[in-house]
Sequence to fold (254 residues):
Amino acid sequence: MNKAKRDVVIAGNWKMNKSPAEAKELITALKPLVADADCKVVICVPYTDLFVAVEETKGTNIKVGAENCHWEKSGAFTGEIAPQWLKEMGVEYCVIGHSERRQYFGETDKTVNLRTKAALEAGLKPIVCVGELKEERLADKTHEVLDTQMAGGFDGITAEQMADIIIAYEPVWAIGTGLTATDEQANEACAYIRSIIAAKYGQAVADAAVIQYGGSMNDANAAGLLAQTDVDGGLIGGASLVADKFAKVVAAAK
Ligand code: 13P
Fold:
């Protein structure tokens, strides 16, 4: 299967931005701008914006995602959210293992694995984030890091389940820094991730896998990145907070 047959998915990751009122305003502005999109459009928003996001996107081509979920169905886990509750409220996607969660909130490949399995079981589509730190890239350890993150994060996940997972390659040095990976660096890493999937699940599963790039992707650089053979979309931070900029990234996904 070549790229043309895979879904292209442009997802915004709002991170800890936008109050419910601001979310409503942004979605209202975004809806007409992306109504004719040639790709799948997803907005991953703070828990407190999910209700308004689901309501405001009903009947549109915009799908809603959360930014995290817990792996248990309920219990004494103060501050956590169960994946089936997200599903119940109309959420379809869930970002898992973002580097900010790995850096600041003790997320590990093991917890990424638990959250991914729980999200799948609840019927959510996980967007699993992987990517190397700047010092790891400089030490030529990018492949090693991706090997480890993919082995741990995808432990016990079946070939059938892979069809519901999106992988986001997000080099940590490119996130929020304005320092985008070059088209070639992004493509090389996404192709490497695809080769890891091929080795574990076979070529057909790898060929069908949707692999996004994320890290300072914006209206100016999206077309070049999205034209790469192994880049099947983007996970957009800062540029997803401005309707017009996010719409231009969506429009670049032809
Ligand atoms: P920026 O687009 O702000 O660099 O963030 C990327 C990201 O972390 C998306 O998950």
About this structure: The chain has twelve helices and eight strands. The chain has a mean pLDDT of 97. The first helix runs from residue 20 to 34. The pocket of 1,3-dihydroxyacetonephosphate is lined by residues 13, 98, 170, 175-176, 214-217, 235-239 (CB under 6 Å).
